[in-house]
């Protein structure tokens, strides 16, 4: 009897100790960040929404599904243990899997990103600044313009939907946009572009031209191939959108509420403009991007399509018409652009 009693006590002790060790290991594991930032491989921030009335079970489950915590149960226990549950707010947040469950819980009680804004593909930096002000973001447009110019990041303000604090600084907003660009212009895309002899900045410049020139996705790789072929042969690109960019730069002021950032009419006189962005007058790429392209335009450049065409034009409906020779291109101009500029 004593033997069995001693054995039972040993088993109870053994399993109790095993449980405590297992719980300790599990608790420690679950309270660590989901990922750790490494050099050139930072953990990206993720948009996270809490709908008004959401319970702790729903919030914990959503955090786990988004890959922000290792364990929904451990997050829930931390919230209950610290009494943070009643303080969690409904709204939109930027959360990082590099944060611990407790840090995430505390973040959900403050600092909401409570303004939803959507940056459209093809907007230039000035348009984005004006849109932010219109949507109630408290930035100074002159400071916005200065920050954009000093950092030279036209083209890298990635078009997407964001949740931005009304009092966010231009620097913080720009950092958010450019971080999203880095996330979307993946290492795989960079390597693919490098294989074809195109560096990142060249891709962004070309993508900005494609974004403004070509509306239909099926045509974008073909036009990208035409532009790259012209570059290789030393031809001027002759892109209308780059000239529109030049004209707007000279005519518009940042504070103007009626500025036409993309003037539709281009005259023959405009084509004599001495700006380095005038791709009618100067060969090669313009000095920088003319707008902020989306992923579709970027991919169109990286995965450009070879074709027998050297010329293209866009009609009033946004349809692209191609030509192999200058003579055929002139026929397309006469046929499709009868009302176009002389």
Tell me about this structure.
- This protein has 342 residues and is mainly alpha-helical.
- It has 3 domains: 46-107, 2-Layer Sandwich (Dna Ligase, domain 1), CATH 3.30.1490.480; 115-183, Dna Ligase, domain 1; 188-336, no CATH class.
- Helix content is 47%, strand content 8%.
- The chain has 13 helices and 6 strands.
- The strands form 3 sheets. It has a two-stranded antiparallel sheet.
- β5 and β6 (320-323) form a beta hairpin.
- α2 packs across α3, α5 packs antiparallel against α6 (141-151) and α9 (200-213) crosses α12 (295-302).
- The longest helix has 29 residues, at 2-30.
- The chain is elongated.
- The N and C termini lie far apart (110 Å).
- The model has no long low-confidence stretch (mean pLDDT 85).
Give the tags.
mainly alpha, 47% helix, 342 residues, Dna Ligase, domain 1, single chain
Per-chain topology:
Elements: H1 2-30, E1 46-50, H2 56-65, H3 72-82, E2 91-95, H4 101-107, E3 115-118, H5 125-134, H6 141-151, E4 161-164, H7 170-184, H8 187-195, H9 200-213, H10 220-233, H11 240-251, H12 295-302, E5 311-314, E6 320-323, H13 326-336
Antiparallel strand pairs: 1-2, 3-4, 5-6
Helix pairs in contact: 2-3, 5-6, 9-10, 9-12, 10-12
Tell me the strand order in the biggest sheet: 1-2
Average the pLDDT over all residues and give the rounded result. 85
Oligomer: single chain
| Sheet/helix structural class | mainly alpha
Strand content: 5-15%
Strand runs, count: 6
How far apart are the termini? 110 Å
Shape: elongated
Counting DSSP H or I runs of 4 or more residues, the number of helices is 13
Element string (H = helix, E = strand): HEHHEHEHHEHHHHHHEEH
The total tally of domains equals 3
Rounded to the nearest angstrom, the radius of gyration is 28 Å
Detail the poorly predicted runs.
none
Helix content: 40-55%
Main pleated-sheet profile: 2 strands, antiparallel
